[in-house]
Structure formats: C-alpha cells, structure tokens
C-alpha cells in the first residue's frame, strides 16, 4: 500500500511541485496551505509522514509539530521540517519541537525522496 | 593632584563611552545579521520553487521533455544549484560573522561519491568551458568526518574556482589518504585540485586564503578575484570542522589547492 504524505506549505508552486513529484514516486499525497489545515488533516488522516514548512501561516510549523508530537494519537507521524532559515535556527526550533528531521531550502526531488525513504525506514 | 583626578576622570569616561559604543555596535551587528537572515529566507522560497520545478521537468513529472530542450533545462538546474550553494554560503557567513554561532555538524562523509555527484552537477558548465576533469581516486578510502552540507558547497566552490582560472583545459582531482605522521593522533584524507593557471605571486597566493580577498582585484588579470565567496571562506569553513585548505603555485604556473579532512572515527575503515 502506498505511503501517505501530508504537505503543509503555503507556497502554491512548491506545494504543487511536491505533490506532483511525490505522486509520480508512488506516494499518496495530501496538501494543506496553513497550519490549521495541516493540524486538522494530520489528526484526521494520520499520514505516515508530514512535510512541514516552518513558516506556514495561522499556526506556525514549529507549533503544529509540537502539538502533533504531544498528542498520543498523532505522535507516530514522522515530521520532516522544511525551512529557508539557517540550520542553526532549524535545528534548534524544529528538533526542540520533536521533528524527526529537517530539510534546508532550496531542496529538490532527489534530496527529498532520500530523506523520506530514510524516515520511512526508521 | 587635581590634574591627576581630571586625567583619571577622562580615562574612566572614555573607557565607559568606548564600552557603550562597543555594545551598541554589537547590538547593531546582531540586528543586521537578523535582517540578512530574513532576506535569505525570503530569497530561498522562490529559489526552491524554481529548483524543484526544473528538477520535476527533468524527471518527467510534467510529461516527456523534448530532447532539444533537455540541455537547456540542465543549464537551469546547474544555475539553481549554484545559486542554492551561494545562498547556503551567505547564510553561513551571516552566522559566522554576525551571530558568531556557526557550528559544523560533522558526520561520516564519503568523499569520492560526493565528488562524483558534484561533477555531474557541473557537467554542462565544464563542457561549455571545454574543461576536462581527470580523476585519480584511491580505492577503499575511509569516510571523513565533515559537515555534509558545508563540504558539498566547499568542494563545489573549489572545483568552480579551478574551472574558472584554468588555462590548460584540464583540472586534475587526486584523492588519497595521507601517510600517517609519526605519533599522529588522527588520519587524514587529502583532495588535491590542480590546474595550469595564471601566474600568481607567493604574496597573492597567500592573500587568496584571506576571507576578505574577494574585495580585491587579482594582480595578474582584470577578472574577478574568485568565484563564490572565495577560497578564504572555504578555508574558514574547513578549519571549523578540523580540516585545512592550502594553496600553492609552482614556478611553471601549476596551481594546486589541497583540502585535508580528518578520517571519521565512526566509520573509518582500517
């Protein structure tokens, strides 16, 4: 069965590019444009992996991550944070919120797929 | 006596004023650093969109790409990759110089496959420049302990530097483990990047490893002094991960950049 990936990203072009790429790679893909939608979708759908932009509007990525990781029902969702900030900030904020990994922008398909496979193998 | 008190008063006032000015300067530096980090974050978002779209085109995500357009799409990929590395370097520079919190995250890195991947990223630019890369990689090399993200950018910058300044049409990459020094506490790998280049004086060769060298003009030509943020920046990054960078020019004009990195103790094969 295909793994489900939820993408929380407010930049439409990035969201659409990720969706098309991951569908082509055989993933089932769900999309959310802000933190609220991401949270609701994650709670409802329990995806295998959440790719989450740190700077997503309404509820920021770090807070979404923190809430999902503190809830027994959603703790198992592997969260990959994506950020255009420096690694110093990304490591500190994302990992403190319980993220399972992070990707620095700009990233492309191969790097992302490699990161997803690594998370799925854990 | 009064004169002494006046002198002490002035000295104390000057010291207090100097300290206050120093703190104000530091505060301003941090503010600029934060603003620059924000700008880089903003630049990164459209760059990610472009880079990902180009990769999606090349991977056929949007359908088959006409053969005659593939080479142009590869050029775009190369340029978005290069831009991404420059953004990463600038981001590190901000953390190094403004926030003073740049710390490498060393992990075992296999240098040979990293170089092969970088050369494939630069394939079309090397071909356009008529540059042939001659590789000589020793077999069975151990991993080095390095920050993967940084080391990719460093090696890219060094090869791009060689590509730009070579005059002989060839760049030689030699990767080997250095013979252990007597009583050495660690093993090291060395990558030597050599090319026939412009004549460089020993003074200029030394200056090229300075962080602020890009602000100068080369004394041997009218071209820009370096590519990217320069060899001095690469040296700074390497030294932060316990590596080193050396640059030397032989009499005949053969330039050689040597990168040395410690063997990873986690996965270093004996």
Question: How would you concisely characterize the structure shown here?
Answer:
The complex is a heterodimer of chains A (122) and B (270). With 122 residues, chain A is an alpha/beta fold.
How would you describe this protein?
The complex is a heterodimer of chains A (122) and B (270). Chain A is α/β, with parallel strands linked by helices and 122 residues long. Chain A has five helices and five strands, in the order βαβαβαβαβα. Chain A has helices at 12-24, 35-45, 61-70, 87-96, 109-121, and strands at 4-8, 28-32, 49-53, 78-83, 101-104. Chain A is globular, with a radius of gyration of 13 Å. Chain B is of the alpha+beta class and 270 residues long. Chain B folds into two domains: 2-99; 106-262, Histidine kinase-like ATPase, C-terminal domain (Heat Shock Protein 90, 2-Layer Sandwich), CATH 3.30.565. Chain B contains seven helices and seven strands, in the order ααβααββαββααββ. In chain B, the strands form two sheets. Chain B has a five-stranded mixed beta sheet with strand order 2-4-5-7-6. A two-stranded antiparallel ribbon of chain B has the order 1-3. Chain B starts with a helix and ends in an 8-residue tail after the last strand. The mean pLDDT of chain B is 87. Classes of the chains: A alpha/beta (122), B alpha+beta (270). Chain A binds chain B through residues 11, 13-14, 17-18, 20-21, 24, 55, 83-89, 91, 104-110, and chain B through 37, 40-45, 47-56, 59-62, 80, 83-84, 87-88, 91-92, 94-95, 99, 101-103, 105, 149.
